[in-house]
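Slide 14.
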Amino acid sequence: MKVEFLGTGGYHPDAHRHTTCVLLPDRGLCFDAGSAFFRAPDRLAEHGVTELDLVLTHAHLDHIVGLTFPLAHIERGTLTAVRIHGRRKKLDAVREHLFAQEVFPVLPRVFEWLPLPDAESGSLSIAGGTLHFQEQTHPGGSLGLRFEDDDARFAFCTDTAPLDATAEFARDADLLAHECNFPDGFEELAARTGHSTLSPALDLARRSRAKRTLLVHVSPDANDPADPVGLAQAINPPPRAAVAIDGLRVDL
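Slide 15: predicted structure.
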């Protein structure tokens, strides 16, 4: 399983990171379409993939703005199908607002909108494996995702307060990518905005027994882009913990 972190920042892009987009290029599977989504079609083409399943964790703007980007690839025929999976209300909001005539007047003709079941958690067969989803704590709601096949397990949990349930959801993952929007010391703001600080995120990663942990959705307001959440000062971090950067590629 190949996992590529095309965008690892939150809120808005900056000189160091674009907003959230994670691609499994050989599977034609993508999680979120932030500002880094412009990178996805070329990466798919390098693997000879022309169809894409895109799963939205939620519909906040920094996770969907990239849906307007692949129009040229679609018109050229290098991207022939984009199946967009997400909660029904989120998909409806994207179609109604992002693709409103006054905002972006061309709805890409190969888009197919596929609502996920309304249950708090569930699963579906996709991209040659199984995708599991679980509701998280975030304003307006968001989904934690876990994709697995016979060889590997990848858990992706962004835009969420730190939850005990995440440790079980990501149990024994080969890779856990968990949001860490703030360093320690910003707990009140994190709670108010539905995000995580460093220590709770690392704690749940330890409890999950994930083989590797990458921190994503870091704030563009960080003082140190190389270590935006203070990971270097963390006590007893989980195995192979690091802050993800745009362009990082992981083979599981």
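Speaker note: The CA atoms of residues 174 and 211 lie 5 Å apart.
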